[in-house]
Each structure stands twice: as C-alpha cells, then as structure tokens.
Specification:
By secondary structure, this protein is an alpha+beta fold. The chain is built from eleven helices and eight strands. It has helices spanning 7-12, 17-34, 41-48, 52-64, 81-92, 98-111, 153-160, 164-173, 187-200, 242-246, 249-264, and strands at residues 68-70, 77-79, 114-121, 124-131, 146-148, 203-205, 213-221, 227-236. The relative contact order is 0.10.
Length: 272
C-alpha cells in the first residue's frame, strides 16, 4: 500500500469543510490501522502535516463513535470495536466473496479435505470462509468461529509474521489456556516454535486445539508484503498425518497466491 499523504485532503478543501473533515478522518483511521503500534494524535498531526488541535478533535469524535479506542491507561489510539466489526463485515460479505469461495472450493476438491480462510481479529483468529469435505468424520467450525492464536495453525502463523515487538505485546496479552494435552502453555516454548514457523513460512497444529485434528496453514501476502489472511487445510489425524498434509504445500501456496491477487491486490490479475 502506498504511503499516506495529505495530497487528497488538500484537494478536497475547495469542496467545503465537511468533506475535508471526512477525508481527514478516514486518512487518520487508515494511518492508525496500518501501524504496528498505537499512535498518538501528536504523532498523527506531524505525520499528516495537520494542525494538532484538528487531529485531536477528529480522534476524539472517532473515539466517541467507536471507530477508535485508546490503549489501556494511555493516550495513543488503535482501531475501535466498531471499526473492527465493519472490517469483518466487509470481508465476509457474500456478494464480495464469490471469487474467494471458488478458490477455496478448488483447493478443497484437490486435497480432499476441509479448507478455510481466516483473518486476525484482535487477539483471536476469525473464520471468514470455509469449505467442508464430504467425509463422514468432520470437525464443526462454522464461518464466524473465533479461535485462539497460541494453539492453532493459522493463529501461530499470524503470531510468527508479526514484528518482534508487536508479537511480544500480543503474547503478553494472551492467556495460554490448555485445550489438549499437546497445547503449548509456556511462552518461551511457543516463541521458539514461532521462530521455526517464521523461517519455514508454514503454520501447523498437531492436535493442540482439538484432539485428533491436524492442520497446515500458509500466509496470504498483500501488496505491502504483509500477511493479510491465512489459508489452511485440516483433517482428522486418523485420516491424514501432518506429514501427509505437507505434500499439499505447493497446492496450498498456489491457492494463497491466487487469493492474494484477488483479495489483497485488487488491481492485479488472478494468478490462476
């Protein structure tokens, strides 16, 4: 994504204050959600070359509307609950997801297992889409399900792709609850596994969230070279081992590239 500037804001000044404030507010929100840490109104004013009083006022209004929120005990801003809900609603809109679903269907058909697309939402992962297999033994995790980060293939992949400081803040905020005997509940042990996941670029779950379920996940990388989604396949371990799922990594990565071309790079052509 190109760097944010006030060029567009300045161009709207001639159209009146209402439009100028609207575009300024959107630009502030955009700057905040692209950052890997909370931002203060003073920092935003300097970055966007806008008056401090103006930015402070707009941030307060956005906070009142639930689009921004302050970090606990601080003055810096992050995206608010209403903004996150809006983002999730946009991503999961059925009208916009037809192409996305066709990619998952093709992947599921080729590997013969359930496939899903997830996004990071706060300190959880959210199922945006999912294609079930026709096998009689299936795991019921419908679209809209929220799963923990520390014990799922996609969750660990999102953690592994964070910058070290951001990952440490996230891990400090998580409660590493035990879901099965294989769940990692020690932060240092988890950090070591996350380093390996980052090196390979593949997330995995060997029954750490649901006993008897194995999963493999790869990132969907956006035009800013950041992970925007994750595509995963999972199966009961009685049907496929993790090593058997790894045989489908080229297919999984191809699906992720197609997904990136349609979901993260709207000006690009499908890589099919």
């Amino acid at each position: 994504m190109p760097p944010i500037t006030t060029k567009g804001i300045e161009a709207t000044m001639k159209d009146g204050g209402t439009q100028s404030t609207l575009i300024r507010g959107f630009t502030i929100v955009e700057k905040i959600v692209q950052a890997d840490r909370p931002l203060s109104s003073a920092y935003l004013a300097e970055e966007l070359d806008l008056p401090k009083a103006t930015v402070h006022r707009i941030c307060q209004q956005l906070e009142e509307e639930g689009l921004l929120q302050r970090e606990p005990g601080g003055k810096r801003f992050t995206g608010g609950k209403r903004l996150r809900n809006l983002a999730v609603s946009t991503l999961s809109n059925s009208v916009l997801s037809a192409h996305r679903r066709s990619i998952l269907q093709a992947l599921s058909h080729e590997v013969g297992e359930t496939c899903n697309l997830t996004v990071l939402d706060g300190n959880e992962i959210l199922y945006l889409d999912r294609i079930e297999t026709n096998w009689p033994y299936r795991i019921h995790l419908p679209v809209g399900s929220r799963l923990p980060l520390h014990c799922t293939a996609t969750g660990k992949l999102f953690l592994a792709n964070m910058k070290p400081a951001a990952r440490r803040r996230m891990l400090d905020s998580l409660t590493l609850n035990r879901h099965t005997d294989l769940t990692i509940t020690d932060t240092e042990v988890l950090e070591e596994q996350l380093r390996k996941i980052a090196e390979e670029g593949v997330g995995y779950d060997t029954g750490e969230y649901l006993e008897g379920l194995v999963a493999l996940a790869v990132p969907v990388i956006g035009e800013d070279n950041q992970m925007c989604f994750s595509i995963a396949i999972h199966a009961p371990s009685v049907r496929k081992t993790l090593d058997e799922l790894r045989q489908y990594l080229p297919t999984l990565r191809h699906a992720a590239a197609r997904m990136a071309a349609t979901e993260c790079r709207p000006d690009s052509e499908d890589a099919a």
